[in-house]
Design a protein that fits this description.
Among the domains are: 19-130 and 278-344, Rossmann fold; 468-473 and 581-680, D-Maltodextrin-Binding Protein, domain 2; 482-576, Helix Hairpins (Orthogonal Bundle). The radius of gyration is 42 Å and the shape is elongated. The protein has 754 residues and is of the alpha/beta class. It contains 25 helices and 28 strands.
Length: 754
Amino acid sequence: MHVIILGKSAANESSDVKGIIGVIIDSSSRIGQEHAVAINLALEDFYQKNNLSFALHIRSSQGDPLLAVIAARDLINNQKVQAIIGPQTWAETSLVAEVCSQKSIPLLSLADTTPEWAMRKWHFLLQSSPSQIMQMKAIAEIVKSWELYNVSMIYEDGDSSFTEVLSQLSGALTEVGTKLNNVLAIAPLVSSSLFQQLEKLREGQCRVFIVHLSFPLTQHLFETAKKMKMMGEGNVWITTSTFTSLVHSLNPSSISNLKGIIGVKSYMPNLWYQHVNIYHRFWKKFCSENFEEFNCEPGIFAAQAYDVAWIVVQAMRETNQGQGQVLLDKILLSNFTGLSGKIQFTDHKIPPAHTYQIIYVIGRSYKEIGIAVPSISNYKQYVNVIEDRSKNVTSFNGFSLKLFDETVKRLPYHLEYDYFASNDTYDDLVKQVYWKKYDAVVGDVSIVSARYEYASFTQPYTDTGLVMIVPVKSKTRNRTWLFLKPFTMHMWILILVIIFYNGFVVWLIERNHCPELKGPILHQTTTVLWLAFCSMFSLNGGRLHSNLSRLAMVVWLFVALIISETYTANLASMLTVEQFEPTVDSLQKLKKSNATVGCDTGSYCERYLQDALGMNAKNNKPFDSQESYADALKKKEIAAVFIDVPGSKLFLAKHCKGFVQAGPTYKIGGYGFVFPKGSPLLHSVNRALLDISEDGTIRNLENTMLASEECKDISHTDGETTSVSPASFMVLFILTGGTSTIALLSYIFSVNCL
């Protein structure tokens, strides 16, 4: 037991003390030790800020529920505390809550699991640390990513919260199509039976173990499992936040026993580092009282205890030493952001954590995620790494990285990660994931079969394929018959048919009125042709005697005018616009001429050209930027460059006038993110990629980050000006043909009537 009165000595405790606070901890546990130091710091900081003193009485239950009850009665009856913070387990809380409710003393429990009914039964009970029960959904997602359908759970015998934990886990596993195959209870005290219990698990078929044990018991479990060689490949160990949240407190030798485990813990924005003074004071105080320097870093439990203590003293100040219901109501109205994040009570509890993060234990340390980013990318729109050596700062930008950031936001758990710049080739980066130097690679990494030997890929997030880019040259062609090119052959035939038809109709109607239209057959035929062609340029209304022939000619002249203007415009375009064609249009020509070709430095392209396309390895020249192979193409140092489809779009957008894509698209997998084989993240990341693809996020990023290059001076490199076909004038042809037919039928009808 110790008593602390901030601002006054214990011997001189007086009415200047604005409140009396009780704390129940387990001083034998790391969590309890963090709680004690953090609550002390909170009261010290409140005194420094507000010049108000509070008496703090701390009791240790040693994790025993009966001792916790005794401590609570002493704090309430003898020390006259107005509120109690703690304990840290539900077994202790369930007994202390009864005592506090009888005396109308607010109890701010720090247990990570409290049943829903408890707050309804004990009005003065508040769950002041977020419930961890929702972490079972995150664990189910990890199991799903491994595509495993049977798991076992190991829990601590006598854990009163296990029923609710088991219910949540079973439901979460059922949702993802996985079965809870076995449930194993471990005695809370270290015993020789643990070896026999683990032996039964090893003999079974299930190789996925979810561990929900206290911190010291989990350590003992893994020490035993390591001796039994159950920590190697083939077994998956997943720990809940009860253990994972304290991994940072272990020394390297202890962590080495945990190699290969996956840990889940709730994510809270730990704001210790924004309060450097508090952080260093905690470190100094905690290390001097408890541990050596290597594991004195404060965790989330310390942050939560600091925030809860601040809530209590703030409420006491605002209620002027109010007690019972008055103090409880003020605490329930608390709403602020502390070291552990936002603190606000709803239905007597802080909402459960819904965001979780994953850690991996590798070697003699633990970490979250280190992601490699290729510095050698030729396409800065996808990956742009800028290293400022003078300030020792590296910045990361680009479509691939922004896309990964957005993808991670959609994961069902929180994932902490850091980017690391790398100058290695893409193949070497993939291998370094296999060698566990990096946990993933984010960048413009092409998905090719040879790399699957070392790692797994997400689904591609870009178009797939490899294309050939070549310079263009002026197209040479025979211009002798160019005057016929504005119209297609069918168009010319239809025009001639309409001309002859309209001429025939006019001749038939006008021949009785005009002697010039009579005579020998040859004379009449030439006259018909003359009428037809002249009508394209003149109505000759004064020489036509019948209104029917005039009607036919008016419509035809209108159509003829449109046709002639279209012909003129199309012919002018063909005469003035320069036509281009690729300098090389096939891979076979490159091989035949033994030409040198370019590709991106460090990419799979060189190997693919040699192995798949049969190019001579000596003729492959790597380039480290778009500008370098653009210059090489212009200087004819290379005949072509082979680029991935995403890169080719950027290149042709920027260098739009002198180059063109030629030949087929060779099917390659596109860009993807790289993860270790069997990574539990892969399934969730693929799902998240689908989500952001379907909701338009990828499209928005493409428009924002990849559409910046615009072609200012587009040259026509895709063939000749299109010849006009009858389809474009079909309505006009029907109009003039129909009008002439109506005039012809009307003339025939009038003649027969006479």
